Amino acid sequence: MSRVCELTGKKAMVGNNVSHAMNKTKRKFDANLIKKRFYIPEEDKWITLKISTAALKNINKKGITAVLKEARAKGFLTK
């Protein structure tokens, strides 16, 4: 499975490693993803999501149901 956040759509970015001599080589900045289980009381079930830590902060702030509703409206979550 790809390393993409299921709620926000965050994915890897491309950049450069820069040495002291200013030589540049390509590198990849991966998203900070975690696999987390959430309980949804409205549907009375558990779901497992691969989310970024920024999305986890949003869930802690707004609640899982509000964040899932926004993600479904944007088309990121198809479950």
Quick tags:
79 residues; alpha+beta; Ribosomal Protein L24e, Chain: T; two-stranded antiparallel ribbon; 4 strands; ribosomal protein; Ribosomal_bL28_sf; Ribosomal_bL28/bL31-like_sf; Large ribosomal subunit protein bL28
Could you explain the architecture of this structure?
The protein is α+β, with helices and mostly antiparallel strands. It has a single domain (13-74), classed as Roll (Ribosomal Protein L24e, Chain: T), CATH 2.30.170. The chain has 2 helices and 4 strands. A hairpin with a 4-residue loop joins strand 3 (33-40) and strand 4. It starts with 12 loop residues before the first strand and ends in a 5-residue tail after the last helix.
Instruction: Look at the structure and name the CATH superfamily.
Output: Ribosomal protein L28/L24
Count of domain modules: 1
How do the helices and strands follow one another from N- to C-terminus? EEEEHH
Structural class: alpha+beta
CATH class: Mainly Beta
- How much helicity do the residues have? 25-40%
Radius of gyration: 16 Å
How are the strands of the largest sheet arranged? 1-2
Sequence stretches where pLDDT stays below 50 over 5 or more residues: none
Distance between the termini: 16 Å
Question: What number is the mean pLDDT?
Answer: 93
- The name CATH uses for the topology is Ribosomal Protein L24e, Chain: T
Number of helices: 2
CATH-derived architecture = Roll
